[in-house]
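Researcher: I'm preparing a figure for a lab meeting and need a structural model of a single chain. I don't have an experimental structure, so a prediction will have to do for now. The sequence is pasted below. Please return the structure as C-alpha cells so I can convert it later.
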Amino acid sequence: MHMLKARLLVRLMPIRTDEEGQAIVEYALILGLLVAVAVTAVQLLGVGLLQLLTSVASKMP
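Model: Understood. Here is the structure written out cell by cell.
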C-alpha cells in the first residue's frame, strides 16, 4: 500500500508544481481585456469618424 501511495505522489507532483496552466489562463484573461478595450475604442472612434465624414460630405456642393 505504501508503494502505491508513493507512486501516486510521484505522478501527481508535476501537476502541483506545473504552472503552465495558470500562465495560459492569465494570458487568456489579458487577451480578453485587450479585445474588450479594442472593441470599445473602435466603436467610439467609429462614431466620431462617421460624424466627421457626414459633416464634410454635407458641406460639399
